[in-house]
From TrEMBL:
GO terms for molecular function: signaling receptor activity. Belongs to the folate receptor family. Residues 1-30 form the signal peptide. GO terms for cellular component: external side of plasma membrane. This is Folate receptor-like domain-containing protein. PANTHER family: FOLATE RECEPTOR, FOLATE RECEPTOR 1-RELATED. It comes from the Eukaryota. InterPro entries: Folate_rcpt, Folate_rcpt-like. Keywords: Disulfide bond, Signal. It comes from Coregonus suidteri. Transmembrane segments: none annotated. Residues 36-211 form the Folate receptor-like domain.
Length: 254
């Protein structure tokens, strides 16, 4: 005779429910990281269309983490964005300067940097990018166009003299030829912003590296999706998920 009461859910059933929830949670995390903005000084809270992005930042206009005003300031040698002086060892050549403008547009505007965003404890930002895989063409063209310029430091994130409100070379640092400070393209791309980028031998047609320069549809979304799909949380085995579920269930049952 049917008593009308439901059979109790077994522990095994609860484990597999938790496994499913963990899998769904990892998928949701991936989707969130695919289209997001950093918690940094000038970034928008969420990405979205910005039809009036300026010059070199225009490729991000369909979906951007920067505002039109930020994109304009990215092109200004005396920008209020970070009060950073590109001309700290004489006037930077235009062919070199265009790469730093593009680098700024990429940093400020990109909505597909989620796989490489890390939390930091800094007064001017709460998050940064770390080890973004840069396409070989972008890195080498940047270095080639700057190799006749001069600088006094290898890591441009730290160690400047800011007493005037703009960065100046510290007293002990002498201006040297670019190639003396950055002997190779790899050293420049990885060291200049303290490992924000990772040098790769990948071509911009590989779909496995991020492009600073592009036209048309943003190719970096597919790259970010690839790395998110190959992130550690996507490779958890059923056994490891079951272990996590077991631990979660233990907490629930306490």
């Amino acid at each position: 005779m049917n008593s009308g009461t439901a059979a109790p859910i077994s522990c095994r059933d609860m484990w597999w429910v938790l496994v499913l929830l963990l899998s769904l949670a990892s998928r949701a995390l991936s989707l969130e990281k695919l289209n997001m903005c950093m918690d940094a000084k000038h970034h928008k809270k969420e990405p979205g269309a910005e039809g009036q992005l300026y010059q070199q930042c225009a490729p991000w206009r369909d979906n951007a983490c920067c505002t039109a005003n930020t994109s304009a300031e990215a092109h200004d040698d005396n920008s209020y964005l970070y009060n950073f002086n590109w001309n700290h060892c004489g006037i930077m050549t235009p062919k070199c300067n265009k790469h730093f403008i593009q680098d700024t547009c990429f940093y400020e505007c990109s909505p597909h940097l989620g796989p490489w965003i890390q939390q930091v404890d800094q007064s001017w930002r709460k998050e940064r990018i770390l080890h973004v895989p840069l396409c070989q063409e972008d890195c080498h063209s940047w270095w080639d166009d700057c190799k006749d310029d001069f600088t006094c430091k290898q890591d441009w994130h730290y160690g400047w003299d800011w007493t005037t409100g703009h960065n100046r070379c510290p007293a002990e640092a002498k201006c040297r030829k670019w190639t003396d400070v950055f002997p190779t393209a790899q050293i420049m791309c990885e060291k200049i912003w303290s490992d924000s980028y990772s040098y790769t031998t990948l071509s911009n047609s590989s779909g496995r590296c991020m492009q600073l320069w592009f036209t048309g549809k943003n190719p970096n979304e597919k790259v970010a999706e690839y790395y998110l799909n190959h992130a550690p949380w996507q490779h958890a085995t059923p056994a490891s998920l079951l272990l996590l579920a077991t631990m979660s269930l233990s907490v629930v049952l306490l």
